[in-house]
Amino acid sequence: MTKQTVALFDVAGTLVGSNPWEYVRQHPDVDEKRVKAALLRFLPVYIARKLKLVSDETFRDRWLRQMARLFEGWTRAQLKALFDDIVQINMRDDFFGDVLDRLRQHTADGVQVVLVSGMFTELVQAFADHSGAHIAIGTRLQFEGDRCTGRIDEPTCVGPRKLELLRAYLSAQPQQTDWDSSYAYADSRSDIPLLSSVGHGVVTHP
């Protein structure tokens, strides 16, 4: 059976140079009181990370759980509108041109392009729609019907779980992945497992 080549891209720091969470927190549609409460709850983890008492994986996991609480009660349509607005308007000038060109060259070559990030899947999808990537994999928000519960649908897509969730998704596809011929692009030490999973790992703007 023929296997497919994929190109894997991290988002924050790799595809874009700025931090998407800053735009999320400052967006006028996001309740300022919820933001302040989330940051206050997160403060002990932030301090612990500065003191090297918690891992980067724990730091990112706890951050995502606090950010999820901002969207309790939001509908899927409201989330899509927010994230599309952030990516297409607030961050339209924040994309690294060289990385975006490489992504689009892969799509032109018939390579399946996957964005994989710790961010919420809905936000990763907004980046995929804007850049032309085929698949978006991230941390899943939990919903009851059409409403976000403000919680995470386990697990968060951070640390080793990032590669685990990616592999689980690709292994369920009809065409299996040729990891040796595939590509990965990322900027940080936490993505070494992702870069090491393929034949062509590329460090971008480290």
3D structure, described in words:
- The chain is an alpha/beta fold and 206 residues long.
- The chain is built from eight helices and six strands; from the N terminus they run βαααααβαββαβαβ.
- It has helices at residues 20-26, 32-50, 56-68, 76-90, 97-108, 121-131, 160-171, 192-196, and strands at residues 6-9, 112-120, 135-144, 147-153, 183-186, 200-203.
- It has a six-stranded mixed β-sheet.
- α6 links the parallel β2 (112-120) and β3.
- α2 runs antiparallel to α3 and α4 packs across α6.
- It is globular.
- The N and C termini lie far apart (37 Å).
- The model has no long low-confidence stretch (mean pLDDT 95).
Mean pLDDT: 95
Low-confidence runs: none
Based on CA atoms alone, the radius of gyration comes out at 17 Å
Number of helical segments with 4 or more residues: 8
Indicate the percent of residues in helices: 40-55%
Secondary-structure topology with pairs:
Elements: E1 6-9, H1 20-26, H2 32-50, H3 56-68, H4 76-90, H5 97-108, E2 112-120, H6 121-131, E3 135-144, E4 147-153, H7 160-171, E5 183-186, H8 192-196, E6 200-203
Parallel strand pairs: 1-2, 1-5, 2-3, 5-6
Antiparallel strand pairs: 3-4
